[in-house]
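Lab meeting prep.
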Amino acid sequence: MATTGAVPAGAKTRSKPAGAKRPRPRRGVRITLFRARREWSAYLFLAPGLIIFSVFTVAALIFAFYLTFHEWSAIQPYKPYVGLDNYKDMIHDKDYRQSVINTVYYTGGSVPLGMLVGLGLALLLNQPIKFRGSFRTLYYLPVVTPLVAASILWKWLYNGDYGLFNYYLLKAHAIDQPLLWLSSQNLAMPSVILMTVWMSSGFSMVVYLAGLQSIPDELYEAAKIDGAGPFARLRNITLPLLRPTTLFLLVIGIIGSFQVFTQIFIMTHGGPVDKTTTMVYFIYEAAFKFYEFGYASTLAFGLFALLFVVTLVQLRLYRRADL
């Protein structure tokens, strides 16, 4: 008697070809819902964060985009639909273009200087010197200092009547009369840039230190054997291998500098004569000084477009660095 499952004599069997893949199990809606119901407890833990993110981020972005097509004023009951007029006004707004120029000026001064100072500190503190850890901590303290407190401190240092900068410059006979750092059209933005460099160089230092410590010592030893001096090793080994780190700091610095607000708000209020009015401060004035929330939302999306372009440049630069 034949056993169950035995193949009859003369019957042909189908053999799977070598390397054949098994069909993937079907994942329909029912299976997905079943798994969601089975792991319902996980959604309870995720619910608070998802609700906050949905209400204060996703819904806020959608509503802000909706405002860009309306003349939405906080003091006017009638809020008409204006189509793309806000975007046209943004393109032809001279004050907005000036804020873009001021932001680019601030970015071009603060980001490279902060990176350069950070690189110098990293090269110095990467050497086996005494109290190296203490020096690293001291130079990093400005990064963790509250921005509002630091802005108030530097505003006091820049004070034309009793600021420490004017006091020591007068004592050293470097100037004949006190300088109006934050009231001068030529000195206001450089003063804010100097304060930003003081705050940002510590972060660049830490990132550059991480990059320096990832460079193999064998490369420097081989260069010394070949007779390369310190500057030659810096030019041919250190800087090329720090290129990804430099690109990272450059992009992060540009994105952060395009959103500068606190220093401007506390130290200069956009003056003198709008010489320090940056893009974010211009958006703040449109929204909370003139109550034009529709136009302010349009300006915010204009800033988003610029940052989006910067992000695309970042991806392209990273791809080139990996080649």
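Slide two material, second protein:
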Amino acid sequence: MPDRVPAPAAESALPPSSVTTRAFLAGPARAAGVSQRWLDSAELFRPVRGVRSLVVPQTLVDRVAGLMPALPTGAAFSHVTGALLLDLPLSYAMEEDQRLHVTGPLDTRRMRKPGVVAHRALHARAHTIVDGLPVVDLADTWVDMGELVGRGKPAGLDDLIVIGDAVATRLNSVQPMRRALMARVRPRGKATLLEALDEIRVGSASPRETLARLMLVRCGLPEPALNQAIVGDNDVLLGVADLHWSKEGVVGEYQGEAFHDGPQERASDEVRREGFERRAGLTVEEIWKADMSSSRARRSCVLRFARALGVPESSLDLSQADPRFFSSHAIDLAIQRDMQRSMRRFG
């Protein structure tokens, strides 16, 4: 890499007129007449070798834009990078991956740059544009998350369901994800993705709402409608219920501390709850973060909802209240491996 040689103030005050983007390839810029002195100046940031940027990256979009000039034709940002650009909910373990992920057609050259993971795809991905940047679209990004599933990897079954709920809600359907998955031959994590599809629903407004629904339904409670408008007399909107069991007349409200713990938020919640109970005749059960903080708390929460819904405790499987990281397929494989090891040891 050339040494950084500060350019004279008059030369470095503004970029040359031939430089029209915030990040650009140094070679073509040099061929267009940009001086090597300015290209080597300390005012330019070098995102990756051969690229110069007019801005020091402060955000993920800045980092991605800095890599953009070096992107092979037909490539797009993908996997964790794509999910973050699409504003999909990721776990802390997934967000820890600070590398930039790029996916291109199988016949494109593989990028070999520090901090960049280049994926070459056998099957084409649909692309969208985010902040002027090419990104693998919602449904294909969800399928790509299957590559993060497995021993020693950061994503589990419930992570795929949380992301899937967000994708399904934005697309108003689960089917685009199913089509994207079925279009691929033996994608990584396929068994877990298929299992997740069965539990993905349209309508969830947050990851905690998704996890609350899974906790209740897996134990044997009926499936609720998600974020359903509750209308009172004279078609007056009383509010939107996070979880709604219309037949049983029960509403479940997830009260996240970030949005429901202040005095104004609590007052608004009380008004909505009063409308649900007095004007619509509904029973309202709240779910707080503490209700999902331990196995004991989760089981107690499930039993509280079961009483409200009129579901006998004897029909519940409270062992299913805990979050699930491993899919049924992964658990079955682990059991088979243990049995095979035991047979080799004692057989």
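Talking points for slide two:
DSSP finds 15 helices and eleven strands in the chain.
Residues 71-197 form one domain.
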